[in-house]
Amino acid sequence: MKQLLAVLLLAMNLAFAGEAVPLADDPQLEARVQRLSEELRCLVCQNQTIADSHAGLAQDLKNQIREQLRAGKSDDDILAYMTERYGDFVLYRPPVKATTLLLWVGPFLLLGVGAIVTVVAVRRRKPRVDSCEFTGEDHARAAALLAGTPETTK
């Protein structure tokens, strides 16, 4: 029974297997496709390049790049086409412009605000005052307890 279950699980895995994408006949063309794919963001995954993504849209975009390269377009033409069609968001490293300035400066601003909040919190913290001072009487009681003599009450 366990063997049958194992065979069924393996058979189900075959159903989910994706088809291998054939490489171009020209290795130089495929290298350019790879290089351009690493500069474009997957619009589905949003945190991966289309070179790393397995989403259907990423495969379609790679095929578009391949077709445009075969048509003789330059890398800059293809990046301009993708940017025109999908906006600066499609670029994995967006240019520094007024509209993308917050993307570039935002992390440093948050780091600065966090540092300022930390410094202010540390400075406002009151110093710890040790109010537990021992008197001579306390020392005598402690010595009596350590010596094993009964403690005298007040």
From TrEMBL:
Keyword entries, A-Z: Cytochrome c-type biogenesis, Heme, Iron, Membrane, Metal-binding, Signal, Transmembrane, Transmembrane helix
GO function terms (MF aspect): metal ion binding
InterPro entries linked to this entry: C-type_cytochrome_biogenesis, CcmH/CycL/Ccl2/NrfF_N, CcmH/CycL/NrfF/Ccl2_sf
BP-aspect Gene Ontology terms: cytochrome complex assembly
Signal peptide: 1-17
A GO CC term assigned to this protein in UniProt: plasma membrane
Pfam families attached to this UniProt entry: CcmH
Membrane-spanning intervals of the chain: 101-122
Domain CcmH/CycL/Ccl2/NrfF N-terminal as annotated: residue spans: 6-146
Function: Possible subunit of a heme lyase.
Record-stated family: Belongs to the CcmH/CycL/Ccl2/NrfF family.
This protein's name: Cytochrome c-type biogenesis protein
Organism from which the protein derives: Ramlibacter albus
High-level lineage: Bacteria, Pseudomonadati, Pseudomonadota, Betaproteobacteria, Burkholderiales
